[in-house]
Structure formats: structure tokens, C-alpha cells
Amino acid sequence: MSTSNAPAQWDVVKVRVNPHDRDEHPAVIISPDELCANPHKAKLNVLYGTTRRPAGGAGLFDVTLNGADGLEHPTNFDCSYVYTIDRARISTHMGRVAHERRRQIGRKIIATFRLPI
Length: 117
What we know:
117 residues; 15% helix; alpha+beta; SH3 type barrels; seven-stranded antiparallel sheet; 7 strands
């Protein structure tokens, strides 16, 4: 994962969110670093990604990440649903979310859940 081999907030990782999924998909860790650094905390919060189709754009609740974030293809991350995963399911570290897209994700989560700021 990060230099200490522990996952960190804004890491882009590969994970099988649902045990019955055939393939692993990219996910963005959104749990805070304090939780990520604690090996006794088995669960982490992530946003799940799906490859964006050539004719498709980002959905209403999506933020698109790409090669600048460590992904091979443009990938939409749905900010309307936060998944909880077991940290042991993380198989691969792919990259880190670029600073501007971190802001986009934060704004999208706030807007999606209509959180007061």
C-alpha cells in the first residue's frame, strides 16, 4: 500500500467488494489515515469504481479518475454509496487520487448526501 505497506486515505486499490463478484475492481479508500494505520481496525470505507464505457460519461453521483490516479482506463467512482471492506481483501495498490480529484470527491459526497457545511 503506502510506504509502510499499510493502506492510506486516497489510495486506489484493487478489491473484491462483494465475495460473489467474479473480478476485483478499483476502489478509493476514504477512511481517515488514523483508522487505516491501526491494524486492529479490520474494516475500511471505500468508494467502488467501474470502468467508464467509451460512449458513457460520469453519472450524477460519479467522479471519474484516470491514469493520473494510477488507473489504466477512465473509471467512474460512485460517491452515493460507501462500501465497508475487510482490509485483508485488498490485493493490489494501484496509485493515489490526485489532489484536485480529492476535492471533487469531497464536494460530490457533500452534495450527494446533502451534508451541511
